[in-house]
Amino acid sequence: MIIEILIVSGVLGSLAGYLSPFVTNRNLSYLGNGLSHAAFAGAALGLWLNLPPDPVLAAFTIAAGLIMTWLSEKGRLQLDTAMGIFYPMSMALGLLFLLLSQEYHSSALNYLFGSLFLLGATDYVLTGIVVVLVVATLPLWGQMAYATFHRELAVSDGVRVRLGDYILVFLITSFIVVGVKLAGVVLVSAFLTIPGATAGLLRGRFAVVTVRSVLIGASSAILGVLAAWQFDLPAGISIVLVQVFFFLLFFPFSGRAEMR
Amino acid sequence: MEMDKLSVQNLTVGYPGYTAASNISFTLKKGDFLAVIGPNGGGKTTIMKTLAGILSPVSGTLLYSGKPLSELSRRQIAYIPQMKDISLHFPATVEELIETGRTGTWPFWLSPKMKKSILSVMEKTGIEKLAGRSLSELSGGELQRVYLSRAFYRNPEILLLDEPVTGLDVRAGKDLFSILETFQSSGKTIIIMVTHDIQTAYSHANRVLLVNGKQIECNTPSAALTAHCLQETFGHEGHRHGLFQIPGANHDH
Fold first, then answer.
1. Which is deepest, A228, A257, B87, B164, by most CB within 10 Å?
2. CA atoms of A129 and A173, how far apart (whole Å)
């Protein structure tokens, strides 16, 4: 069982590592936070309604991601403001659904902090589907990277930046849907932030930073799962601590020009 | 007759619910250098973004060689945004940015052949010493020259520059215009530049568009940069800042 968990954790870590440089360079860290809490509200709603929590979680999270991107794109709200509203609202709704269900759900706590034992055959299949989605959108990497560098310049070159935005949010949301069981609501957003931030500490091109981030994401997930297995910890905690360890390890070597 | 001409007729530009400038009309041929001058908020940058295809025109027509400008391949227009809009944190090298001039997408990797081709462009624009440098290490003047090299690589029909000399010292400004002169002397490119610097417009452009929410004048520098037109564009504030003291300009009253 541990082999399967290690493989799926490594794949999830790689997926997060691939998305992470986009998240950090587009200042989307809040998005991961907001969406993971929407996932909690979805899971709690499923538990309250006695429905399988995972499909409700997925539907709730994907809808939240698309609504937040739409609101931000229409200029109605800044993305961080939208997150500032969505984040506590989702948490409040999740806790309300749990209170209304009038029975104790131990799995709800697992959703908060992640557990190796939540992962099952369905999650392996879902992880595979997300891998296929990411691979299918790889040809758009250049356009999404260009829009990340300079949105208006990319538009002036005919890049369909809105399509790229929606694809990126869809991939981030898909990762959260499958990653929330491993890492937990509270910590899954770190998967989308820390590998990219760590990889960006060292000089290099965006492509190099992305490859580095994938390696950091995968290795920290595998090491974190091994630590969780060994010390009987929630997986999210050990993986995030390994990620932070990598960040601190590389931090002394960072050197970016602060001013031009 | 319309070949290689950019024709802008009754153009109104802006954002949903907001008009930045209206009734803009001018015609330019290859080799022309148009300076767009006006106060902050006068609509200069919005006009540039509309020409660059970033914004759709509110109304009016934009034609190149008799066809809608939007039908012109995006590779035939090179847009250089304001330097303040460039991210300092994005990890990128000089060569990567120049390569986007050819492909219009961000390169995952650069083959030796690509690098050689980029280096030859950098040599032509005198920035070969910047090879391998990260964008975050460059000065404003160096970054402008990288953007111009990117445009040079593209060999565009239309070159759009939004306030390229803002924040540059005298030498960096001179370097910039020496590259622009290469474009101008080739006679193959229409150059449109937004600037606050009236002296620069007078020295380098052969056409000047004055805007302040609407078109005030579009003519040759000596005909457009009159005290009357500048006062209409900038109001009385222009006098205080010495805007109207242009050596050789027409100081009519």
1. B164
2. 13
